[in-house]
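Agenda item 2: adenosine-5'-triphosphate complex prediction
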Amino acid sequence: MSKRVINIAAVPGDGIGPEVIDAGMEVLNAVAKRDGGFVIKSERFDWGSERYLKKGDFMPENGLETLKAFDSILFGSAGDPRVPDHITLWGLRLKICQTLDQYANVRPARLLPGIEGPLKGVTSKELDWVIVRENSEGEYAGVGGRVHQSLAEEVGMDVAVFTRTGVERIQRFALELARSRPRKKLTLVTKSNAQRHGMVFWDSVFEQIKGDYPDVETDKMLVDAMTTRMVLKPETIDTVVATNLHADVLSDLAAALTGSLGIAPTGNLRPEKDAPSMFEPIHGSAFDIMGKGIANPLGTFWSAAMLLEHEGELDAAKRLMKAIERVTGEGKHLPRDLGGTATSREVTDAVLEAIQQSNE
Ligand code: ATP
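Presented output:
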């Protein structure tokens, strides 16, 4: 019988993106080989700021059509000091997420074995969260404008857009996700005391639908109070759902609390699976360490494990995650941002070896 093929588009992007994505593809191929049930086919696309500076666009005109033919996308980072951040973000990453309607951004935050976070005495028992971010509208809908530029009366506006379709689908997604986790707990985060239209709307949609999930324990928090709770009472949190902006901020805090930006993964999911989903490390292009061979590839490896899980290759996803945890747990090959001295190559080799040695 011929093996299942998973078609992956690798889009390394800028800065350390190519370093971590090449390592990520190596690890994905190794786990496919070890698992034996499927093969990875991939194509690498040199889209990003370098291309923009030369040709005026981040990807070819038919780039999005090209991506639609793949099962999943492994993305590196977008950002270059020579290009304003909002141009890069809208020209590549957001363009992909929005056009393919990858509306559920999922960000696990867990302290891996051997990693000490900044919170004293907190282990993976207390800090094991998933933050679900609305990824298609809200504060990042791109609606707004600037008028009277450079004049005294200049105005800049961004309008947050919340639709019933958008709010309900992300909240139902989060409720389902919470239901699939052992604690079955979901916190809704908004700011409905100060923002009395869109945020009150979020709260009311939640009130209307949460009854469909009687087995999920729910609570509600204002986003400012949530930052305090994440630091002071991490054990009271499990799954979190919030708007595009709020969850963006909370998940960077979560990444810092789990040891380093270099380790945190994310998936931009199209849950219906009628278009590819995109997986990427949370960190950016980190130009300060580009080309030095010291970038931490673990965030990409964890994102690759999420990719496999989304593709339904649950055993392979578990195998990869266990290999990552073995390497962090042993502590012999930790990258610099996690307090070690290992290069990207050494970390990758250690994970490859752990995949080889895994015996489930
Ligand atoms: P961007 O503008 O694309 O967001 P940035 O450099 O401003 O990029 P990040 O890339 O998120 O922001 O990184 C902030 C800092 O964290 C970097 O300067 C780098 O030192 C460190 N860092 C980020 N990712 C990694 C990684 N994978 N390995 C090691 N250090 C990292």
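Discussion summary: The radius of gyration is 20 Å.
Owner for follow-up: CH.
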